What we know:
The chain has helices spanning 23-33, 41-44, 47-73, 95-106, 151-177; strands at 2-5, 18-20, 36-38, 76-81, 88-93, 120-122, 124-129, 139-146. By secondary structure, the chain is an alpha+beta fold. The strands form three sheets. A three-stranded antiparallel beta sheet has the order 2-1-3, covered by helices on one side. It has a three-stranded mixed beta sheet with strand order 4-8-7, sandwiched between helices. The chain is elongated, with a radius of gyration of 23 Å. It starts with a strand and ends with a helix.
Amino acid sequence: MKVLLIKDVYKLGRAGDIKKVADGYGRNFLLPQGLATLATEGALRQVEKIKAQAEIRRNAQNNELKGLADQIRGVTLTFPAKAGDTGKLYGSITTQEIAAALSEQVRFEVKRQQIGIQPLRSLGEFTGNARLTMDLIPEFKIIVYREGESVESAAQPEAEKAEAPAKAETPAEATPAE
Length: 178
């Protein structure tokens, strides 16, 4: 089925694009949600008008959310979690929890569908992103640390672990060369 996108659709295209989609996706999601229309000759004549309107709407949204994006870029979220000796969590930090914590920090509702990271299942420092619009995707930092420890001590052992194997390899490589 060929459709003409009326609005920007994540992972499909921008408004004014003509896309070939599965019949069920078009009939059951895109058309009822008002995101697309069938690509008929009458609709194809309006492509330029739809693209111009979408560009104006996209610019207005980007300008409106630019301050929020700058605010999100500076955010560091911390999550205490129970974990085993190897650093694997007993459970996970989900996108819902990340969205709730981010919303609380920036005082703007961020939905879990806007968070671009898989559920976190280990201790450490991660980078996530929040898709505010198709063009505006600020990144933020997430730190998952063991319950009962401080956030700084959770980040510090990782750096030491990264340095330790490098020190161990150096003497081993030097021994055979002698």
